[in-house]
Amino acid sequence: MSHEIIKNLSADEALEKLKSGNQIYMNSRTGSGDISPEKRLDTCRNGQQPYAIIITCSDSRVIPESVFSAGIGELFVIRVAGNVMDDHQLGSVEYAASHLGVKLIVVMGHNHCGAVDAAINHDPDGYIKFITDEIRLAIGDETDEEEACRLNVRRSISVIENSLAIHEEEEHGLRVVGALYRLEDGSVEFEE
After folding, report:
1. In the prediction, which pLDDT does 109 show?
2. Distances (CA, A) of 21 to 1, 41, 49, 114
3. What values do phi and psi take at 54, rounded to 5?
């Protein structure tokens, strides 16, 4: 897809592209995104033109480029355990929305998330505690793992939507949606 076409995608068109890519992924045995030497050279020379920002967990089983059948330069991926938001992640979102013109932000949690499990069932210490404390703010007393994952996604969406710079961008067509990736079958359920 050319730089000009991607640059002009609306948030709704970008979301449909993600959904279509996920359908391809669910039935594939190998990746289908463009990772060719030509694409690497093109993005090196002409820069990146991502059509979506994906904030997701660092879990090695969650691979956004594969999940959405995307190639080099198509997704701006921000990964942190538990897909929690802080100033660093917000700065990355702000950069991609403001400087790269991306109109769709997807916060994608996943089932069987170790960070969510740790927040529900354990009391970790060290730096992990920063993550689980943030998740606990999102989930409260919820003990159902899948519902806790959804609540955690919604909190991250709220943090993004309450960011002043992100709020200003909404006037230009920026959209924030939630999603839940299912490890067992590779499907993505979007919360629009």
Report:
1. 98
2. 13, 23, 17, 26
3. -115, 120
Arithmetic mean of pLDDT, 121-141: 97
pLDDT for residue 1: 58
Q: In terms of pTM, does the model score above 0.85?
A: yes
CA 171/CA 137 separation, integer angstroms:
29
R_g of the chain, CA atoms, integer Å: 16
Helices (H), the chain: 3-7, 11-26, 37-46, 64-67, 87-99, 114-121, 128-139, 145-161, 164-170
Q: How confident is the model at residue 32 (pLDDT cuts 50, 70, 90)?
A: confident
Specify the long-range contacts of residues 180-183, CB closer than 8 Å, at least 24 apart. Answer: 180/108, 180/109, 180/110, 180/111, 180/146, 180/149, 180/150, 180/153, 181/56, 181/62, 181/67, 181/108, 181/109, 181/110, 181/111, 182/110, 182/111, 183/61, 183/62, 183/110, 183/111, 183/112
Closest CA to 156 of 173, 172, 180: 180
| Model pLDDT for residues 155-173, shown as the tens digit of each residue | 999 999 998 676 666 667 8
**Contact of 103 with 175, CB cutoff 8 Å:** yes
CA–CA separation, 58 vs 29, rounded Å? 22
